[in-house]
Structure formats: structure tokens, C-alpha cells
Q: What sequence folds into this?
């Protein structure tokens, strides 16, 4: 089965001018190979500033200045059709949005139009993509959708500011799924919420995936969330994938030193050992370290790590890691 | 809704307080100055070689003293003054003696208000609409050209703009008449309507151009900023058409602050209208003011000032009262 | 010291990239030289009439021609520029100072004090400046000069800065660095000058220029009503006298033309410069976002 999305050697940088008018490239996505399969939830994990949000934006075609693609392909395999997302023109891309794939942005506090009622938010989406649908039909579609997702009917007549943060997030998820897209890109959908609401939203995402049989790419730095929902997870560091594989494998047999530390920072009931965090900070993306980007913070670093950049190597059925010592970190 | 009611009531109270304060300022202004206003008027009359015999001079002095409320203690004078103004009694115009000031102003006011009404609405709509679209497409060439045009027009004072227009369109190319409202006897005929248009066109054009600049520039900035808001980006993610995003997302949200901005700009627009009338000899309040200024007619000047304050304050009040009902964030709390 | 040199370097970068900013900077410098340097070399006293033959069109002897009062228009203009600029700056700076102080107090103290300050500021914002100026100038006719007129305009226009500064202070107050500074023991005044000032500076600079622009325009407008400082030469009074003597109708285009042209150049350059400062020195735009 061909994967839904396959990205080859994807490079995208932010082009920024310094105070003194020099051009600086922030290498947020620097040579990424990643694929998304049918009916799966793929997680993208990593610290803040590692390029997760940028990656997901590029994968979903949301490339706006100062972000610019500098190389690579993003192949979409939808039904019988195959195309490179980066080669599409604006209008084709616009038509595909929300029907083929949708996007749940970070911080949905403010993604709703303050002067429009929620029902009209839905109407505009339907009008933009299914022009010929009658108003009656559209209304029914909206009301059913809301009910199925467990949202109260009063939400439709409200203005965004009348809803709580958690409710707004759920509305955004409802908006993203109304046209039943095959792929959903979710960028930190629950980070800004309290723990209880987080649970509810996570449940909603899972149910959506089960009902629609689609795929979700979920970006979050919260390793607990990845453990709970995702089928596969990719670990990102400084714009590069350092490890990717089945969630179970990654959590039980982490191969990359960075993954190891990410997991060790998760608290577990009954475990009273002191939690260690890695020394240092994530590297600046405009000037990443030579060789393996993790080497300044890695306890296993050798001279080879400083000189040669490790490539993703297969160490198990569906488990890849980019490290010169793959498999040795236990 | 009770919060809205509280706001409305307090706003109305503030309205009356503001007017009271402004009138008190007028009182102080009248008192200020090295010259006794009454004496100055009498001297001025004598200088204009209108013969005043001693008895008339004395009774004139008495009347003026009373009118200016210069009798009695300061507090009594103040009370007297405020009460007088509340009744709308500004005394007689000195330059068109003895016509009451109120009459003169009331004859001229409809001209000014009529002109103001249409020009402000037109310039607000044009400026916001064009400026909004230019702000949405900020980087395009035509948008930048439009912006350049607005940025050149905006700093020009209303009066200079009027002068330039008169020069271009009434002197160089004599399309329009050089002065007057044109109608001494208002008859409701097509002819007088067209005469009015011919005479009101240039001042109207001048006012529209003068105010257009500010609306364009502020709306352009607002629209360009709104464009970067999260909800506009999300609308783009949703694949909504550009037209929908421009109108229902950017413009609709940018117009809200422009409504409040309108209230703030009213004072300046009003002053601009007064100055413009002078250039075109348009028989409105501005021209009256000009006449009063050149003849030292204090009563008339004061009357115009008070009416101006009232006009601007009331218009501001109306806008402030309407605003909660058009912003859904305030209306549904 | 380091911060200042970065500002200077950035200033040069901005000038090079932005054509309108550069042009307005140059024209303003030229006008300043005319007004504050050349005017001191003027061979004629601007207050005196009949120093040169009247009604002569521009020539090499009389660069901008002469008017019906027997004055050389070029040298008159240098004085007019100087006086108008002085008046503009006084009105601008005095009003701005009051506005900033009251705005900071309102933003910082809040509560009843804020409400009172806002009430008065709003009342002054609302008052139409022209009729008031006319009434006041009428009353003190004859004793009016640049300085006094500037102060009067300042006393009428201090309202807007109060609102602007207050809202800026309010949003700055909520930012994290305020709390950090407060908790580490800095007094508010210290925070005001050390932390807030760089954020307020672009606005203040732009505001000074914008207000000067407005004050000069106000003076010109006041002059038609015959109520400016008719003895001194200002841009407004030049136009007043030109109108009084029907310059336009009599074909003496240079008498009214040159003041108008210079008014246009001065005001437009001031505006472009202030708008450019706002756009480029804004801390947000320094991060390189379009």
C-alpha cells in the first residue's frame, strides 16, 4: 500500500533580515524524509524550536514568507492520483484544502473570526468547497456533525468570545473535519488547555480518526500524548529526524540518545528516581553544529560524531535511527 | 445587557459634563485678555464711524454689560453665563446689529451640516473601502501608488487644499463658480438644485479629499495588520476564497476600530469644513465665523464656538452610543 | 553605547532602502537650512515694508519675486519658515510633554485618577480647535507672537497623546518584563526610563513631527481669518497678505505660489518622515517580518 504522504529530502528555511540588513537562513526543516500511511496517527515529537510546527506547515502546503522551500518533494497518493504538493498552483491547492487535508493550528484561542457566528464559520467552508449544496442540506450536515462530535447545539449560534478555550478548540476540530478530510494536521492541539479538557479533546481526536478512517499527523512536545494516541512517532531534533518508528518500539527500545532522554523525563507512578534533563539548549537553527547536530549535548559523542552526520538506518522492521551508535543505548 | 446599559448611562452623563466644562472654558476665554470687551466694541463702533449719540452709547454699554454678564460677582457672572447659553441666548450680533446671533447661526447651520454630512460619509466610505483593499494587497504596485497618493494628500491642511482646488478648477479652468452658495432665495426647483450642486461641488470635493487621506491610511494599516491575525490565516488554511476573506474577515473586523476613530476625528473634520467654506464663500457657519472674526463680533464668535462644540460632542455621543450594538464582542457579553 | 551605534547603523540602512524616507529627510534638511541658517543672513527685516520695489516677478535679483508690500519673497520665506517651524515645535513639544506625563500617570495609577485624566483629555480631543483659536486670538489680538500661539495650540492638543501613551503603558505593563523588573526591586520610574523608553521612542519621534505638522497647518488656517501674528512673517501670514491684496487675481502668482509650495513640501516631508519612522523603528518590524 502506497503511503498517503511521502516527503523526500525536504528542505525549508525561514529567510530573515538581521538588524543590519544581512540575510539569515533559519533551517527549520533540513533534509527530512518522512511518510504517512493510511489510517494511522503519526506523532512528531521534540523540544520547542526543533522545527515541528514548520515541518507540519510545509507538509500541508502552508508555505508563506518568510518561510521558503529550498528543496525536496512532497508526494501525495490520494486514491488513484499521485502528485507533488509543491508543484501545485494556488487555485488547485485551495480547492483541495479542507476536503483532502485540513489543519488544526497551534493556539486555537484566536483562530475564529470574532464577528462571525460559529454556524457561519461552517457555512463559509461549505460554500467555498461545495458550492452547489442547498442551505437546508448544509444546515443538516452541520448539525449532524456537531451532534456526532458531542458538542452542544447552542455552540452554533454563539460568537467565539462566548465560548471557553476548550470549547473553542473542539469547535476548531469540528471545523477541520466537516468535509471529512483524508489527512488532518494537528499542531499542538491540546497544549494550551487544562488537563481535564486535554483528555476530552484527545478523545475527540481519536474518535474522529476511528469514524473517518483517516490519518492524523500530531505534533506535540508532550511525550505522554504520543504514548497514548499515536501509532508511529518521529523524533525531531534541530530540523532533522533522529529516530522514527512504531510507538511501542520507540517507547520500549529507544535507540537514539536524545529519545532516551526525552522518555526519561516522563514521570511514572512508583518511580522515585531523580529525573535528569539534558545539559545545554537546542542549537540555533541558523547555525547548527557540524556533523551530528546532537553531539554537543550527547554523552556518547566521539570525533566521528563531530565530523560526520549520521543518516537514518533501519534497525528493525519499522524502526529507523540516525546515530553512529544505533542500538547501543540501553 | 445591563452592562451595556450602565455604559450608555455613564456615557450620557459624561456628555453633559463635557459640555458644561467646555462652556466654562468659554467663560474663561471671554474674561481673558487685556482689553475690556465692552469698551473695545464701543470703540470699534466709533471707529467704523457710525454715529452714536451719548445716550445710545450709554444704553449700548449697559446692554452689553448685561449680555456679557459683567455685572455682579464672578460666581454670579458664571451662573448667569451658563444659564444664558443653555437657553440659547447669545445676544445680538454686533456686526449685523441687532439680529440675534442665534438667528444668524441657524440660517447658516443647515448649509454646513448638509455639506458635512455628505462629505464625511463619502470620504469615510471611499477611504475605508479603498484603503482596506490596498491594505489587503499591501505589496502590489497599484496599492503602493494609491498609498502614495493618500500620503501626499493627507498632510495638506483643508484650507490649502481648497486654495489649490480653487486655483485649478475655478481660475485656471473656469469650470466652477468662484464663490457663494448661489441661492439667496431658496426655491424648490430643479434649477436651484443644480445651482446648489455647482456651488457646493468644489467645497464638497475639497472636504472629501481632505478627509479621504486619513481614512485611507488608517484603514490600510488596520487591514494590513488584521491580515496577519490568526483567524485570517486559519481562513486561508480552510481554503476560503480571497474575496470572502477580504470582506468578511479582514474588512469587517477592521471597520470596527474605524468607527471609534471616526468619533475622534470629528473635531478636526469640523474645523476643516469651517476653513474650507471661507475659501469658497459658502454661506455656512465657517463663513459666518470669518465675518465675525474680521469684525471683532464676539457674540457671534462665541455662538459659533458653542454650536461647534455642541455639534461635535453630540455626534461623538451618537457614535459612542451606537458602537456597542455593532461590535458583537460587546453586544453579547 | 553599543545600542546607540546599532541604532545609527540601522538608521543608515533604512534610509538607503526606503526612497521616500530619504527624499523627505533631504528636503527637511534643506528647509531647516533655509529657515535656521539662511534667515540669519537676510538683508531685509521681514517686518518692514517697502524695502524693495513691489510686484516684481522672479528674477536673478529677486529669486522668488517681490510682493505688493515691497518685500523680497525669498528672504521673507526664510523668516516665515523659521517662525513657522519654531511655532510648530513649541506647540508640538509642549503639548506632547503634558500629554506624556498625564498619560503615564493615567496608565500607571489607574482608578479614579485615570478616569479624571481621561475625562479631561477626551473633552479636549473633542473640542474643535479652530473656533476656539479664533476666539482666543481675537481676544488677545496684538499681543500674539510665535511663542504664545504655540502654547495655546499646545493647550488644546494635549489630549491625543494622553490616550496613546496610556494605552501603550497599559500594554507594556502587562508584559512579562515588567513583572520581572518589579519583583527584582526596580521602582516604576526606573522601569519607565530603562525598559519602556525604547518602545515608546519611535512613537514619540513620529508624534513630534506629526504634531508640528498639525500646528503649522493650524497657524496657516488661522491666518486666513486674519488672526495670526500679522506682524511677524509666517507661512500663514504670507498667504493672508497675498489674499488681502488679491495676488491670485492680479496675476502675482509668485506671491501666493511660493509659500503654498513650501507649505506643501514642508508638511508632506514631515509626514513621510514621521510615517517612515513609525514603520521602520517599530520594535516589531525589527525582527524582520514583512
A:
Amino acid at each position: 500500500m502506497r503511503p498517503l504522504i511521502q516527503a523526500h529530502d525536504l528542505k525549508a528555511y525561514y529567510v530573515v533580515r538581521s538588524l543590519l540588513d544581512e540575510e539569515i537562513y533559519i533551517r527549520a526543516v533540513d533534509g527530512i524524509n518522512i511518510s504517512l500511511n493510511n489510517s494511522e496517527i503519526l506523532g512528531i515529537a521534540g523540544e520547542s524550536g526543533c522545527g515541528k510546527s514548520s515541518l507540519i506547515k510545509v507538509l500541508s502546503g502552508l508555505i508563506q514568507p518568510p518561510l521558503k522551500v529550498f528543496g525536496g518533494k512532497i508526494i501525495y497518493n490520494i486514491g488513484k492520483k499521485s502528485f507533488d504538493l509543491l508543484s501545485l498552483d494556488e487555485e488547485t491547492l485551495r480547492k483541495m484544502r479542507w476536503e483532502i487535508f485540513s489543519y488544526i493550528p497551534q493556539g486555537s484561542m484566536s483562530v475564529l473570526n470574532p464577528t462571525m457566528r460559529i454556524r457561519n464559520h461552517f457555512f463559509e467552508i461549505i460554500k467555498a468547497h461545495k458550492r452547489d449544496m442547498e442551505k437546508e442540506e448544509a444546515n443538516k450536515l452541520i448539525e449532524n456533525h456537531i451532534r456526532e462530535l458531542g458538542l452542544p447545539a447552542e455552540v452554533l449560534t454563539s460568537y467565539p468570545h462566548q465560548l471557553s478555550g476548550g470549547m473553542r478548540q473542539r469547535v476548531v476540530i469540528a471545523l477541520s473535519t466537516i468535509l471529512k478530510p483524508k489527512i488532518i494536521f494537528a499542531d499542538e492541539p491540546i497544549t494550551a488547555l487544562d488537563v481535564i479538557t486535554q483528555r476530552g479533546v484527545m478523545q475527540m481526536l481519536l474518535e474522529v480518526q476511528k469514524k473517518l478512517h483517516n490519518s492524523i499527523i500530531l505534533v506535540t512536545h508532550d511525550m505522554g500524548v504520543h504514548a497514548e494516541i499515536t501509532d508511529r512517532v518521529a523524533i525531531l531534533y534541530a530540523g532533522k529526524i533522529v529516530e522514527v518508528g512504531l510507538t511501542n518500539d520507540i517507547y520500549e527500545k529507544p535507540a537514539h540518545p536524545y529519545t532516551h532522554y526525552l522518555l526519561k523525563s516522563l514521570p511514572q507512578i512508583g518511580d522515585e528516581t531523580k529525573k535528569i534533563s539534558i545539559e545545554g539548549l537546542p542549537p540555533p537553527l541558523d547555525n547548527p553544529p557540524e556533523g551530528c547536530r546532537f553531539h554537543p549535548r550527547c554523552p556518547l559523542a566521539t570525533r566521528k560524531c563531530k565530523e560526520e552526520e549520521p543518516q537514518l538506518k533501519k534497525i528493525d522492521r519499522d524502526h529507523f535511527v540516525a546515530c553512529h551508535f544505533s542500538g547501543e543505548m540501553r | 445587557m445591563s452592562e451595556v446599559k450602565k455604559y450608555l448611562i455613564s456615557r450620557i452623563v459624561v456628555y453633559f459634563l463635557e459640555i458644561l466644562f467646555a462652556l466654562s472654558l468659554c467663560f474663561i476665554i471671554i474674561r481673558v485678555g487685556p482689553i475690556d470687551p465692552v469698551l473695545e466694541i464701543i470703540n470699534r463702533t466709533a471707529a467704523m464711524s457710525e454715529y452714536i449719540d451719548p445716550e445710545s452709547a450709554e444704553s449700548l454699554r449697559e446692554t452689553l454689560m448685561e449680555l456679557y454678564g459683567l455685572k455682579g460677582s464672578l460666581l454670579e457672572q458664571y451662573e448667569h453665563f451658563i444659564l444664558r447659553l443653555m437657553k440659547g441666548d447669545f445676544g445680538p450680533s454686533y456686526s449685523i446689529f441687532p439680529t440675534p446671533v442665534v438667528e444668524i447661526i441657524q440660517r447658516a447651520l443647515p448649509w454646513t451640516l448638509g455639506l458635512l454630512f455628505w462629505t464625511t460619509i463619502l470620504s469615510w466610505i471611499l477611504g475605508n473601502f479603498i484603503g482596506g483593499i490596498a491594505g489587503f494587497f499591501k505589496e502590489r504596485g497599484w496599492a503602493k501608488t494609491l498609498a502614495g497618493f493618500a500620503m501626499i494628500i493627507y498632510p495638506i491642511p483643508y484650507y490649502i487644499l481648497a486654495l489649490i482646488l480653487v486655483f485649478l478648477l475655478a481660475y485656471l479652468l473656469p469650470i466652477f463658480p468662484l464663490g457663494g452658495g448661489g441661492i439667496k432665495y431658496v426655491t424648490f426647483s430643479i434649477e436651484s438644485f443644480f445651482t446648489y450642486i455647482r456651488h457646493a461641488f468644489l467645497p464638497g470635493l475639497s472636504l472629501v479629499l481632505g478627509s479621504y487621506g486619513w481614512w485611507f491610511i488608517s484603514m490600510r494599516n488596520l487591514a494590513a495588520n488584521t491580515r496577519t491575525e490568526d483567524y485570517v490565516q486559519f481562513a486561508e488554511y480552510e481554503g476560503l476564497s480571497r474575496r470572502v476573506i477580504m470582506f468578511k474577515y479582514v474588512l469587517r473586523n477592521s471597520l470596527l476600530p474605524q468607527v471609534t476613530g471616526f468619533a475622534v476625528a470629528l473635531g478636526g473634520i469640523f474645523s476643516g469644513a469651517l476653513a474650507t467654506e471661507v475659501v469658497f464663500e459658502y454661506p455656512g457657519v465657517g463663513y459666518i465665523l470669518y465675518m465675525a472674526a474680521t469684525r471683532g463680533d464676539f457674540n457671534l464668535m462665541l455662538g459659533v464656538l458653542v454650536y461647534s462644540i455642541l455639534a461635535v460632542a453630540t455626534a461623538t455621543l451618537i457614535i459612542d452610543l451606537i458602537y456597542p450594538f455593532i461590535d458583537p464582542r460587546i453586544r453579547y457579553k | 553605547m553599543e545600542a546607540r551605534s546599532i541604532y545609527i547603523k540601522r538608521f543608515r540602512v533604512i534610509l538607503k532602502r526606503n526612497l521616500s524616507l530619504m527624499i523627505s529627510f533631504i528636503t527637511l534638511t534643506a528647509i531647516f537650512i533655509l529657515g535656521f541658517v539662511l534667515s540669519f543672513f537676510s538683508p531685509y527685516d521681514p517686518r518692514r515694508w517697502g524695502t524693495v520695489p513691489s510686484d516684481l516677478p522672479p528674477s536673478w535679483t529677486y529669486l522668488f519675486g517681490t510682493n505688493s508690500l515691497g518685500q523680497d519673497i525669498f528672504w521673507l520665506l526664510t523668516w516665515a519658515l523659521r517662525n513657522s517651524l519654531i511655532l510648530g515645535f513649541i506647540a508640538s513639544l509642549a503639548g506632547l510633554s503634558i500629554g506624556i506625563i498625564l498619560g503615564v500617570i493615567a496608565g500607571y495609577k489607574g482608578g479614579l485618577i485615570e478616569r479624571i485624566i481621561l475625562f479631561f483629555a477626551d473633552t479636549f480631543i473633542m473640542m474643535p480647535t479652530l473656533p476656539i483659536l479664533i476666539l482666543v486670538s481675537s481676544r488677545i489680538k496684538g499681543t500674539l507672537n510665535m511663542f504664545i500661539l504655540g502654547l495655546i495650540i499646545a493647550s488644546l492638543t494635549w489630549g491625543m497623546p494622553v490616550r496613546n501613551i496610556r494605552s501603550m503603558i497599559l500594554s507594556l505593563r502587562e508584559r512579562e518584563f515588567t513583572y520581572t523588573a518589579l519583583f527584582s526591586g526596580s521602582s516604576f520610574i526606573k522601569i519607565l526610563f530603562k525598559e519602556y523608553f525604547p518602545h515608546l521612542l519611535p512613537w514619540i519621534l513620529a508624534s513630534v513631527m506629526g504634531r508640528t505638522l498639525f500646528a503649522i497647518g493650524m497657524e496657516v488656517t488661522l491666518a486666513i481669518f486674519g488672526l495670526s501674528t500679522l506682524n511677524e512673517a509666517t507661512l500663514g501670514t504670507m498667504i493672508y497678505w497675498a489674499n488681502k491684496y488679491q495676488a491670485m487675481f492680479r496675476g502675482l502668482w509668485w506671491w501666493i505660489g511660493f509659500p503654498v509650495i513650501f507649505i506643501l513640501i514642508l508638511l508632506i516631508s514631515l509626514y513621510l518622515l514621521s510615517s517612515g519612522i513609525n514603520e521602520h523603528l517599530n520594535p516589531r518590524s525589527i525582527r524582520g517580518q514583512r
